[in-house]
Amino acid sequence: xxxxxxxxxxxxxxxxxxxxxxxxxxxxxxxxxxxxxxxxxxxxxxxxxxxxxxxxxxxxxxxxxxxxxxxxxxxxxxxxxxxxxxxxxxxxxxxxxxxxxxxxxxxxxxxxxxxxxxxxxxxxxxxxxxxxxxxxxxxxxxxxxxxxxxxxxxxxxxxxxxxxxxxxxxxxxxxxxxxxxxxxxxxxxxxxxxxxxxxxxxxxxxxxxxxxxxxxxxxxxxxxxxxxxxxxxxxxxx
Length: 238
Known about the structure:
alpha/beta
């Protein structure tokens, strides 16, 4: 098995390291405690579709850039309206639920293990403020956390991945982008980053035509593969 010569890892956050649907479900149920699963899921889907649609409109130039937390507030108003709730405080609390997302069971330990060998960079479509809240709530530990807000774009726009290249000071091919979303990894590939798909219950699985450098069942599996592919070597750093 050939070595994978990389010097830093770049992690997607939403879906890859934290369970976004679970956090949003909790926020929706707090908005209306009478909701059961059958009532919660359509509201969750309404939120998700709004965020995806509006990010796509920004990427397509059909809407001026708006940070992720502003889109969360829009989604919260839509969901609250659909649930028949018009209390501004309740809507604001629902919007903030997008920052209170639980980590996957292997996330914290996996990041700690990987950080022993590589600099870790978080790269998220979440706003700077939201990313701070996410990191604190989920116990995420980074050497650097970057928000797409700094590029005034959303992944998979190449300018977002370029943030990690610039901050690391490394050629793109020395960075490994880790994500549970194949569309995210394709975007990173277009800028020359290496790629690792990590399977999660949510996300965007690879298609038959995708060719990523690594495929992992979780962060422990990713670390094991990097131990082998990277030859347990680490580049010297000052």
